[in-house]
Amino acid sequence: MIERNKIARSIAICRHFINGSFGLSLATHTLTGFELSEPLLDAAAYNTYIETIGNKADTIYAHAKNSLSEMMTHSYLDYIRRISEKFDWKSKETMLAFDYTDEDFYGEVQGLDIHGWKKGKGITGKFKFLTCSLISDEIPEKIPLISIPIQLGHNMSYAVVYCIKLVQPYIGPIKLILFDRGFYAKELMYDLKELNLPYLVLAKKGNKTKDKKESYIYEELSKMQKEEKKLISHEYEFNSNKTTYRFNSYLAFLKSIFSKRLDKELDWVFATNVEEIQLDEIIRTYRKRWRIETQFRVQDEATIKCKSKEMKIRYFLFLFEQLLQTQWVCFYKKEEVSFKAFLIEIHKVNKDLVANPRKSFGKA
Question: What is the 8-class DSSP label of residue 17?
Fold first, then answer.
């Protein structure tokens, strides 16, 4: 049984987020987070459309369209600030992980916010978000620190660095940033090195080609023995804005390493700017970012369905879902409360508090 006072505090946090995202206050608005939290929590609990739950969908959508995305970002970050203070994150070394996630779109694909999709199931496009998460040994789940919307043709390096700068005031020194192979990009590695930010990115192994600049990883692996591990320095080169940039990074090669999980041998190649990286621990360290896949599957349980083409509406709903997940990970999972049970309870208690305002308690 979840303590009612605790749930009430979580509800207050949701209402505070809504007010901050939309710039609402009791002094100037008839409807605020107090009323608007009800259809949002109901829709999240039952994975349905806000329109199905009640008559406030148009109000929520109008506020989202008229607000700035930055207001939503900083309203979420305000909660991260308070969590950071509670867990004293600033005094601890921090490990971060990045990943892209998306939400399905059905309909005519238009504009820069919807990424086309041609793999069937009626899905025609995707809304994409870049998420920066904290990996903590104290909490066995990734904690989403912030997500930002991603348009077609975005600059990946700029987006990653922007997220890091958003969360840096709330975390301690960055020990390592983990990326999957989709982030193996020269410009990103160059920018992180220039900012003195340590990274570990799964490299693309490539294949044998006539271009030695593109086949060097494949060629290096082919010369190695089973279970051999080595770290080498490699020079990268890329062009941007009519300027050629060169920099060195390290490549960690691990040949034919047995995976118990997959029951087979795998070749691993990582790029990093950490010279003293421990090759015997590098796979174990990288696997910590796999928690992010569980993180997104969990958030799917709180999906608020939406047909809108407006990115700001989609972004607000995505952050609201993420806010619920963050609260559960930090304060409820350790009590062995499932995420779905938390969603059902918070929606039930909120309905009662809206119907009986005198019962409202809990601080934002």
Answer: H
Tokens of 92: 């601890």
Give the Cα separation of 192 and 209 in Å (integer): 29
Is the CATH code 3.90.350 the one for domain 68-331?
yes
Mean pLDDT within 134-139: 80
Element (H, E) at 259: strand 243-259
Model pLDDT, residue 364: 39
Assigned token pair, 288: 């910590």
d(C-alpha 143, C-alpha 47), whole Å: 22
Residue 312 CB contacts under 8 Å (≥ 6 apart), including other chains: 64, 65, 67, 69, 72
- Cα gap 306→329, rounded to integer Å: 25
Res 282 pLDDT > 80: yes
Domain boundaries defined on the chain: 1-67+334-364, 68-331
pLDDT at 363: 43
Q: Which of 77, 192, 71, 70 is nearest to 145 (CA)?
A: 77
Whole-model pTM: value is 0.91
Taking the chain, what is the end-to-end CA distance rounded to the nearest angstrom? 22
